[in-house]
Design a protein that fits this description.
The chain is built from 18 helices and two strands. By secondary structure, the chain is an all-alpha fold.
Length: 469
């Protein structure tokens, strides 16, 4: 008898995962990066706001698709149902083997930097990598042990990170009341380079990223057709307001040059307010915030691997569930191994961030193509709501702009890495899925029995597509 997924998250739990996954490294490692790119604080705030609106437009489209296909895998399932097997295999393979590990590696490294900041202002690279690996192992253990425990922990961490952002905002406005700052004109020093604007939007995209993956764990949400749209919209509205208030607080306390040159922005901010006495508490609060985002992303990433296995695009043992905790242990462990290898290879956050955003934007466009295809098909059940067509059109134009301009303007050869990866995955699709070469050469039955006995796992029940007649 196979196991099935038991829903564990209500509206509060789902919303906290949305907020907790989004608010993390983005606001703390891109606020200075974005200001450096555009040159002026006025345009920087505009891009923060527009990035939030763009994310909300995309989230509404994803929410409609999630109410049609409330299955683990989310974006992967949307592409599979709208465009077919091959694009879905390209997406999920890239997500499992490149995008998710890149994202988690960035979050682990950023978490490690803030955790070690009270001990050393410039810790050795090896120490940061080792700490990041330890945090990865802790996150993996929590997701294997209990989804309910992880959800409760994530809710607490989300409350802490919102209070942290609130504390930063209040501190900024208290400073304003004591000694009003002398602002430079809002658009003074604005860059004239179009590629600089796109680079800043990349930072905004990264800061709001995470909502795309939430549907991957939709079967863990109670009454997902009603709960998910509310959770993702509420979560993004809260995040957008929080980001704008925090950026204003930074500007009230620090000069634009101080923001641009700071490597640990919150530590610099706290030092200006109360000297070194607040630097350690704020660093630890930021670490908790980053780890919460890391925890939320880990939940999503394991579910992508699980869904690909259940849809027969990855080996069957990756969709096994634990007998007692009902968690996808092997999928979480697989993701941890790939991220671990990436952390051992590099600690360059900038390179990982650029690769992540470039490929993610391309696949978001693929989801929107699927959205347009599915909109004009007869589906059962109908979506819980229909998005006005202008929203996906505007979001598609936004994504096309930030995808094409870096290729034309910068001619960055590093952007060929994802292309090489996709070509490789295409060959693997032909060999593994179409020709069934892997299943003919390798017999996984012994490994499956070993894992079931060793880790107390059971196969997942086969899922039928309820929307198909």
């Amino acid at each position: 008898m196979g196991a099935d997924i038991k829903p564990k998250l209500g509206l509060v739990g789902a919303t906290s995962f949305v907020i907790g996954t989004i608010i993390g490294s983005g606001i703390f490692i891109t606020a200075n990066f974005m200001l450096r790119s555009v040159g002026s604080w006025g345009l920087s705030l505009i891009i923060w706001a527009l990035s939030g609106v763009a994310a909300l437009c995309g989230a509404i489209c994803w929410a409609e698709l999630a109410t049609i296909f409330p299955k683990q895998g989310g974006t992967y399932i949307f592409i599979k149902e709208g465009l077919g097997d091959f694009p879905a295999f390209l997406y999920v393979s890239t997500r499992v083997f490149l995008l998710n590990p890149c994202s988690n590696a960035v979050q682990a490294l950023a978490s490690a930097e803030y955790l070690m900041a009270p001990l050393s202002p410039c810790p050795p690279t090896q120490a940061i990598q080792t700490t990041a690996i330890c945090l990865l192992l802790l996150m993996t253990f929590l997701h294997c042990y209990s989804t309910t425990l992880t959800s409760n922990l994530n809710t607490v961490i989300t409350a802490i990170k919102l209070l942290t952002l609130l504390a930063i905002t209040i501190a900024g406005f208290i400073t304003l009341a004591k000694s009003p700052p002398s602002f430079s004109p809002p658009f003074e020093g604005t860059s004239s380079s179009m590629s600089s604007y796109v680079t800043a939007i990349y930072g905004g995209y990264w800061s709001y990223a995470g909502w795309q993956g939430i549907p991957a764990g939709i079967e863990d949400i109670k009454d997902p057709r009603r709960t998910f749209p509310k959770a993702i919209v509420c979560g993004l509205v809260i995040v957008t307001i929080s980001y704008l208030l925090v950026n204003i607080a930074f500007l009230l306390v620090l000069s634009t040059e101080e923001i641009k040159t700071s490597s640990l922005l919150v530590s610099t901010f706290s030092s200006h307010i109360a000297g070194s006495s607040l630097a350690t508490p704020f660093s630890l609060l930021v670490f908790i915030s980053l780890f919460g985002s890391f925890l939320g992303a880990g939940f999503i990433n394991g579910r992508f691997c699980f869904a690909a296995s259940r849809e027969h695009h990855l080996p069957k043992f990756l969709s096994f569930l634990h007998q007692h905790s009902n968690t996808p242990v092997t999928a979480q462990m697989m993701h941890a191994v790939i991220t671990l290898l990436l952390l051992c290879v590099t600690s360059r956050i900038g390179l990982l961030l650029r690769l992540f955003v470039f490929v993610s934007v391309g696949f978001d466009i693929l989801v929107l193509c699927s959205f347009f295809m599915l909109r004009y098909r007869k589906l059962s059940p109908e979506p819980a709501f229909k998005t006005p067509l202008i929203i996906p059109i505007l979001y598609t134009l936004f994504l096309m702009t930030i995808l094409v301009i870096p290729i034309i303007k910068d001619q960055d050869m590093k952007l060929l890495i994802p292309l090489v990866f996709l070509v490789t995955i295409s060959f693997l699709y032909v060999l593994i899925i179409r020709k069934k070469l892997l299943s003919n050469l390798v017999n996984f039955s012994k490994l499956e029995r070993l894992l079931c006995n060793l880790l107390l796992l059971v196969p997942v029940e086969e899922h039928t597509d309820e929307h198909k007649q």
